[in-house]
Predict the 3D structure of the following.
Amino acid sequence: MEGEITIVSNPTVNVRLTNTISSFESTRRFNRGITIAELKGKLEMIVGASPTSMELELFSVSDAFLQKMDDNEALLGSYPVDDNCKIHVIDKSGQISEFTDVSKVEKFELPDDAYEKRTDSARSFMKKHGVGQFNEVEKAKKRAENAARRDEEKAAADGLSVGSRCKVQVPEQPTRLGTVMYVGTTDFKPGYWVGVMYDEPLGKHDGSVAGKRYFECENKYGGFVKPLSVTVGDFPEETYDLDEM
């Protein structure tokens, strides 16, 4: 009849497909008249997941989540699916694609002595041009810097004594007050370290690290810092009145 408006809908739709089994994205065209159960059967051949373990999620062309496609009897066209929308397939069985499971890839390892003899390797290039670990000047400079840092740390450690009140200032951390409980070397890391019992539970342990005890304090009140981060002085212990607001 004159004046009637006829809406013509494309019977097929192009969608992007992603899934939890692999990182690959593909594009497929489907008939809007198929059911979700039929769609899952077609998706099985594409993503490798069993229809019984599939969950489908629909996303817009801009990848905004729209809804779950969880009615197997519903038609694909009953969902707001437009060209270039995305259907994400979630495989509830938890399988991993053989193409993304690197644990199944056989690794090739070249013996160090054989690698040493090669003239086209990165190690050979670095040796020839004195780069990285083969730069003797740079290595000597690093050794000198490390020695100077150790001497500076030792001098700072020698100026500290157990029982002294202290202020701890570590970059990008709040200033903390406490008491020096240990000064010296440790088993957990090289160099000189200062064990501190903080006034507040701002530490990491109770004075023991990796099963070895260096001093005694309540849990979360103990910590270790480098000597250069510690300043000793008359820092009264902070007290907190729970009745104050």
